[in-house]
Design a protein that fits this description.
The complex is a heterodimer of chains A (281) and B (316).
Chain A: H1 2-27, H2 33-37, H3 51-81, H4 86-99, H5 103-118, H6 123-148, H7 151-159, H8 164-192, H9 219-227, H10 232-270
Helix pairs in contact in A: 1-10, 3-6, 3-8, 3-9, 4-6, 5-6, 6-8, 7-8, 8-10, 9-10
Chain B: H1 14-58, E1 62-63, E2 68-69, H2 72-103, H3 106-121, H4 124-148, H5 164-189, H6 192-200, H7 205-234, H8 237-242, H9 260-267, H10 274-306
Antiparallel strand pairs in B: 1-2
Chain lengths: 281, 316
């Protein structure tokens, strides 16, 4: 049985090796500085790249973070402090449900919310769609992290005459900061690769644009368009684009691991021995 | 944190008076957004839902110019591809979870978890790209001709490449890390006393897992599998790229078919008539209802184990 489990696990990891391997082999050839700094070239013209897509993705993610993270952190604080209340219980359940919704449905909602009233695709709409994906992830993670902050610390701050606001900001959130940062980074990694919610919100754009009121390019959208295109040079660029996206996402992943380690150290310093998480056997 | 609110009523600052309402408003944003989402979709889909609901759920002709919107093939394709992917992914995902929570040497556990997380972090469109240019040619040239030699109608050709089979394989690889991650957390939530009791009674390590850990974790494991199902139902890009996008129910694993999410991805940006738009939103509403149902059941099951409510009175 143990042998079967090892075999199953190795089979489970096979796609990882295959996909990463193919992307490296097919993508690394065209990975040049100009690929990262130029917008797409018309079919048949050599060169061209994903520069506008990278910039567009960064802008979209920035909008998502600006909208989603503060509200998520506020909601997380409320959920942790008001754990037994009815609103908290409902919100917690719904946040979990929301993070499991298909991203394409979220995209449709953003379309109804932004594109339909304004009458055109825009980076705002794409950013709103991504923010709706970020929000529940950050809220639930903030709650979990704030709950790990020992109550004695909070009570000490309040006893010293700190206001609730300052306690939350300077004591609770600061202690939970590495954990919250981890969650934000993970959410970033997830939305940076999202394509489906951008199809009819950000829409894509073959030119340079940083105007949030207009359609904007995004790296995943460009990979999708290139992958389905009939031109060989575009298809080749799809692999390179995928390589760039993968490096971006993995880079965020490694940053997360580094932050998680510092969280372990920080929490170990402030958490009393009693009530620590049980080590598995 | 749960102390009285009125520590020093006279000295509450402005920021302090706003603290509770502001965080409560942030929390309330989540139910609000979800309600709005449901209302907007229903409202947009209403023209079709109110008059053609029967045709939508049972018809199989999708003819935009003639105003015929039968979504049975996409609903069927979504369910088929997701359930088949689930059957494929579950044993592998549980292996990974048991290995990384129980069996593997300590030094292997963390790298294993990291690799699984990495697999989960690969964007859908990248899976799709790999699917088009590596998986499909491989299936068409090597796997499908072999399968077609088998008896039975399940593997009847022709071997196009884009097919239910391709979508199932890709979906299985994509939901596997999610199921593995949730299952691992569920296994770790089983109390240590449960394990120690089994070991003290003379169980081997594998007997301990089989008789003490898995029964206690069972509802949570089902929950994790259902979360994977929820993912699979809504997965869009990779499926769109390899399933063939043919609006018909498949009669064999090698047939191309369609899913709800793929239909939305392909047609929504170009929908021009109001009826077409409403029909697509109606399909989205069906997808939303399906994933909501699956997710609510899954979350409930997972929460039961993590609250420790499912400790069995007797071991199975």
């Amino acid at each position: 049985m143990t042998g079967l489990i090892w075999a199953g696990s190795i089979a489970a990891l096979a796609p990882l090796v295959l996909i990463v391997g193919y992307i490296l082999v097919n993508g690394i050839g065209q990975l040049t500085p100009s690929f990262l700094t130029h917008p797409p070239a018309p079919p048949g013209v050599r060169g061209g790249g994903v520069g506008n897509g990278v910039v567009g993705s960064l802008l979209l993610v920035a909008i998502a973070v600006t909208l989603g993270v503060p509200i998520g952190i506020g909601a997380g604080l409320y959920l942790a402090e008001r754990r037994p209340s009815r609103l908290a219980a409902i919100t917690r359940m719904l946040a979990d449900v929301m993070s499991g919704l298909p991203s394409i449905v979220i995209g449709l909602f953003a379309w109804e919310l932004v594109v339909r009233p304004t009458g055109h695709f825009s980076a705002w709409a794409g950013g709103v769609a991504l923010a709706l994906i970020v929000l529940p992830i950050v809220a639930r993670a903030t709650e979990e992290m704030v709950r790990l902050v020992p109550e004695t610390i909070t009570e000490a701050a309040l006893a010293l005459g700190f206001s609730r606001w300052r306690t939350a900001w300077q004591v609770v959130l600061r202690t939970a900061l590495p954990g919250v940062t981890t969650a934000v980074l993970l959410a970033l990694a997830r939305v940076a690769g999202e394509t489906a919610p951008l199809l009819f919100t950000a829409f894509g754009n073959p030119f340079w644009s940083v105007d949030p009121a207009r359609p904007i390019a995004a790296l995943p959208l460009q990979i999708y368009a290139y992958a389905l295109s009939p031109y060989d040079e575009w298809r080749a660029q799809a692999w390179t684009g995928a390589l760039v996206l993968l490096v971006l996402v993995a880079g965020i992943g490694f940053a997360t691991r580094w932050v998680t380690r510092s969280r372990a150290r920080l929490l170990a310093a402030v958490t009393p021995r009693v009530g620590r998480h049980e080590e598995p056997l | 944190m749960r102390g009285p609110d009125s520590v020093a009523p006279g000295r509450r600052s402005l920021g302090d008076r706003f603290y509770r309402p502001v965080t409560a408003a942030c929390a309330a944003a989540i139910p609000l957004v979800l309600t709005m989402l449901a209302v907007y979709l229903l409202h947009g889909a209403w023209p079709v839902l109110s008059t053609h609901a029967g045709q939508l759920l049972t018809g199989s002709v999708w003819d935009v110019p003639r105003g015929q919107f039968g979504a049975l093939p996409v609903i069927g394709g979504t369910l088929l591809s997701s359930l088949l992917a689930l059957v494929l992914a579950t044993p592998l995902a549980l292996s990974v979870a048991i290995l990384s929570a129980e069996l593997a040497p300590r030094a292997v556990r963390e790298p294993l978890t990291f690799l699984v997380n990495l697999l989960a972090a690969i964007p859908s469109v990248v899976y799709g790209l790999w699917g088009i240019y590596v998986l499909l040619p491989f299936l068409r040239r090597t796997v499908m001709p072999g399968l077609m030699l088998l008896p039975g109608s399940l593997f009847r050709g022709p071997a196009y490449g884009p097919s239910l089979l391709a979508a199932t394989l890709l979906l299985a690889a994509m939901i596997l890390p999610f199921i593995a991650g949730v299952s691992r957390d569920v296994l770790l939530a089983v109390p240590r006393a449960q394990r120690e009791a089994a070991l003290a009674l003379g169980a081997t390590r594998w007997e301990m897992i089989r008789d003490a850990v898995l029964p206690a974790a069972r509802p949570g494991l089902f929950g994790g599998i259902m979360l994977g199902l929820g993912r699979a139902l809504g997965e869009t890009m990779a499926v769109t790229m390899v399933i063939g996008n043919r609006h018909a129910l498949p009669s064999s694993l090698l047939d191309p078919t369609y899913t709800m999410a793929s239909l939305l991805a392909n047609e929504f940006a170009e929908a021009s008539s109001a009826t077409h738009l409403a029909a697509l939103l109606a399909v989205a509403t069906v997808l939303l209802a399906l994933t909501l149902l699956v997710n609510v059941i899954a979350r409930w099951l997972v929460a039961r184990v993590e609250r420790g409510a499912s400790m069995p009175g007797r071991w199975a």
